[in-house]
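ingest -> validate -> predict -> emit
validate: passed (alphabet ok, no gaps, 463 aa)
predict: started
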Amino acid sequence: MNDTTDEQTQTLLILGAGGDLTTRLLLPGLGGLVATSSMDDLFLVGSGRSEESDQGWQAAVARAFADGDASGPAVDAVVRNARYMVADATDSDDLRRLLGHCRGRITLYFALPPGVMVESCRALARIGVPQGTRLVLEKPFGTDRASAVALNELLHGLVPEERVHRVDHFLGMSTVLNILGVRFANRVIEPLLTAEHVHAVEIVFDETLGLEGRAGFYDVTGALRDMVQSHLLQVLTFAAMTPPSTLEALDVRDAKAQILRATRVWDGDPERFSRRARYTAGTVGGRSLPSYVDEEGIDPARQTETLAEVVFEVDTWRWAGVPFRVRTGKAIGSPRQEVLFRFKAPQRVPSGLTGDCAENQLRIGLDARRLQLGLNVNGPGDPYDVSQVTLDTSFGAGHLLEYGEVLRGVLLDEKPLSVRGDMSVESWRIIEPVVEAWRAGRVPLDEYRAGTSGPKSWEGRKT
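emit:
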């Protein structure tokens, strides 16, 4: 087996190279990273069970790189040197052969279904991996707290924790990373983001998309596990964490882990402070969607939710007493994707000022790349009449796609955005009471028509 750790040469070995994740997301992101970082020495190896030639793989890589607008000598070199090997990712002999074909430091990317990934890691445990190997895994990291603990033990038997990268592409979104800049680079904002001034925080990711062919995955996962347990709890840590000393991996991960350890369902009552629903037939953006239960591959008996909302508390000195409402839904007609800080009313408005002193709000867009701050100002005409205006600006797009940012953290060891093992366990611990309450039927499964904002019974009612 190849056990060299030459840092000048790296191999990115993708297991599951023929899947949608690889072609649609992973390779376009990699192309941008190669182009901007001049990684012409990267040896790209794709592997899967399907027959494919080196030339066919190279053509697929070239198309995906072009989809990510990547070009240049480094891109051409990586495409030219790319290789493909047929292998079963759960077979120890096949894995040994794959690893022996790699050069230099190996990054092993599991672009595989969760169950297959676990079996692949077990096969690797039987043969070992070369020194310096990095393992990259997609969510979900386990299916509950116990399985997350077991998965961590399996991974740590292969490599140390610092060489395990549990990737969450949300953390590579420039709009999510903008939360750090807005919070920590503005004295007029950061000191106000505390329980003294903020009465509520909302983290919302509603989208117009339906299942989009993901019924097999989604129907056994649902909105709570698919989005809240992973992506949105990670966003919550960015919104709530204490300013770290640096943006290096150790400091950021410690700050995020502290928040997760302090987070739980509001008042410990998932029946009162969570709710769920699924969509019925309707029209979204001019596109007709069937009822969720009528989608191909759906088992209505599973009672899978497509809209989930939970109120959390973050029991730290900074945030004690402030509810964090986290919501995500599919087939929503008016999508809303943002972090919203809702400020308390002024301590006192002097008599004589008239008009509507609306609530001050800070909105950080997660998709629209917008930053908005609502302020009350003296309007035209009567100088004592107050009305609200919105200060609005846009964020620029990042240089890299989300997966490019994720891969940069892995391949170049630059401020890794991956999820640490203890954080994966804490995320499951946080939502377990909700999962149990829903499974027992203690929280009703409401319905909403596709293309609306949610169930009518939710309108005007906060969890």
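Residues 10-138 form a domain with the Rossmann fold fold (CATH 3.40.50.720).
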